[in-house]
Amino acid sequence: MKHRKHWALVVVAIAALLLTTGCRDSRTIPMADGRPQITIMVGGLEKVIYLPAMLTQQLGFFESNDIDVKLLGEQSGATAETALLSGDVQGVIGFYDHTIDLQAKDQCIRSVVQMSDVPGEVELVSAADAAAITSVADLRGRNLGVTSLGSSTDFLTQALTGKEGMTTADYTRVKVGAGQTFIAGMNHNGIDAGMTTDPTVAQMVNSGEARILVDMRTEAGTRAALGGLYPATSLYMSCATVDAHPEIVQKLATAFVQTLQWIKTHTPEEIAAKMPPQYAGAGKDLYVQSIRDSVGMFNGDGLMKPEGAQNVLDILGKYSKNVRPVRDRINLSETYTTQFVEEALRTPRQ
C-alpha cells in the first residue's frame, strides 16, 4: 500500500512539473469546430521574401482549404526554430537551411513547401563606406550586419566572405535584426555593410543611404555569389507533426501552392494591393518597387530542386559550426519532401 501511494505521488509530481515547464507534444494540433488551428511563425512578416505567408491569408486560401492559421512575426529565423522545437508553433516560414542545421543537432525538421530557389538577400554597403567598399574583398576588417548569430544571413555572410579567403576572425558580425533596427545600425555607424531584404533594400537605396554590393534576389546573382542555388523561403515543420498529420499538412501545402501560382499570374501592383496597408508604410510606390525587385525569387510551384539542397549542405558544411563536424552523416532526404506539393499540383485550380 505504501509503495502504491509513493508511486502515485511521483506521478502527480511529474505531471505538475510538465505543466509548469510548458512541455508540449509537437505532434498535437488543436482543433476547433472540426477545423485544424495552426500557428505559423514567420521570420519577418513584412519582408518581401516571406510575402507568401500573409498573401495566402489575404487571398483566403487557408480558409478555402478548411484550416485556420494564425501568423506570428519574428525577426530572427533562429528564434522561430526555437518556438517550433518547443511546440509553441506548428510551422515556420523561414530559410530551408535551418532544417540541415537542426539535423546536425539531432532534431528532425522538414520543409514541406519550398517557395524560393534563391535567398532574396542583398549585401548593402552604407553610403559613408561606399567608396572604400567596392567588392566583397573590401569587407575585411569591417563590421557586418546579420539578423542574428547562427541565422541564415550569418551563414550567407560567411559564405560570401569565405570565397575571398576570409574567416569570421577577419571581420566583426553584428546582430542588427531587420527593418528599422538594420537601418539604424547602418546610419549610426554600427555596421559598415550588412545583409537584408526588401523593402529595406528599396528604401535605403532610393534614399541614397546605401548601395548594393551583392544581389541574391535572382538566380544569376545567387549562382555568381554562392556557386549555385540556395533554396530559402520554405514552410518547415517538425517531422513528427508531418508524419502524424499528413492530411493537415496537405491542406497547408495546397494553400501555399495556390498562392505561388497566383503570384506568377499577377503584377507587383496587384500583389501589393492584396497586402495589409501598413506594409507600404514607407510609401505605396516604394513597396511596389520592392515587390517588383524581389518577386522573381518565388518559384511558382513549391518544389525543391535537389541541386539547391545539396549546395546549401555544401555551404553549411563549411560555415556552420553545427554542421561542419557531422556533414557526412546529414541525410538531405529527411530535410524536405515534395509529396504534398506534388499532390497540390495535381489538384485542379479552382
Description:
The chain has helices spanning 2-20, 51-58, 61-64, 77-85, 97-103, 152-162, 180-187, 200-207, 219-226, 239-244, 246-264, 268-274, 284-294, 306-319, 339-346; strands spanning 31-32, 35-42, 68-73, 91-95, 109-114, 121-126, 143-146, 172-175, 193-196, 210-216, 233-238. By secondary structure, the chain is an alpha/beta fold. Strands 1, 2, 3, 4, 5 and 11 form a six-stranded mixed β-sheet that branches. A hairpin with a 2-residue loop joins strand 1 (31-32) and strand 2 (35-42). The longest helix is centred in the N-terminal third of the chain and has 19 residues, at 2-20. It is globular, with a radius of gyration of 21 Å. Pfam families: NMT1. Residues 52-266 form the SsuA/THI5-like domain. It is found in: Periplasm.
> Strand portion, in percent?
15-25%
Radius of gyration: 21 Å
Unreliable stretches covering 5 or more consecutive residues: 1-23
- Measured between the Cα atoms of the first and last residue, the distance is 65 Å
List keywords for this structure.
350 residues, alpha/beta, six-stranded mixed beta sheet, five-stranded mixed beta sheet, 15 helices, 11 strands, globular
Provide a concise account of the structure shown.
The protein has 350 residues and is of the alpha/beta class. Helix content is 42%, strand content 17%.
